[in-house]
Amino acid sequence: QSQLVESGGGSVQPGGSLRLSCAASGFTLAYYAMGWFRQYPGKEREFVAVLSGTGSTTSYADSVKGRFTISRDNAKNTMYLEMNSLKPEDTAVYYCAARFARISTTTNYNYWGQGTQVTVSS
């Protein structure tokens, strides 16, 4: 069974950092473009960051540019989202996703993680 399993969410104070992980099983992550998305209550899921299969191309939402870094370790079949200088408005459920095609900032992905809550509050 092919799936993505996320970990690393939690609560942090403003200005703090968190690292989200997303482990793939049942398929080889190296052949897939990857993305991180987030969803606020009652809102559509939105693009945060995407990364090509080769790791050579990235794209970030303007709201996280310079603070978040997406990366992948194909040997571990895992992708990451390093989040620094966190703000209260970063509070959301974060999802990882994999796409057997070029990167996309839309939600047109083949596989999704279960979501992990990130809460930024003092």
Q: Radius of gyration, rounded?
A: 13 Å
Helicity level: under 10%
Question: Could you tell me how far the N terminus lies from the C terminus, measured between alpha carbons in angstroms?
Answer: 40 Å
* Principal-axes shape call: globular
Give a quick set of tags describing it:
four-stranded antiparallel beta sheet, 122 residues, mainly beta, seven-stranded mixed beta sheet
Structure overview:
This protein is an all-beta fold and 122 residues long. It has strands spanning 3-7, 10-12, 18-25, 33-39, 46-51, 58-60, 68-73, 78-83, 92-99, 111-112, 116-120. The strands form two sheets. Strands 2, 4, 5, 6, 9, 10 and 11 form a seven-stranded mixed beta sheet that branches. It is globular.
Question: What layout of secondary structure does this protein have?
Answer:
Blueprint: E1 3-7, E2 10-12, E3 18-25, E4 33-39, E5 46-51, E6 58-60, E7 68-73, E8 78-83, E9 92-99, E10 111-112, E11 116-120
How is this structure best summarized?
The protein has strands spanning 3-7, 10-12, 18-25, 33-39, 46-51, 58-60, 68-73, 78-83, 92-99, 111-112, 116-120. By secondary structure, the protein is mostly beta strands.
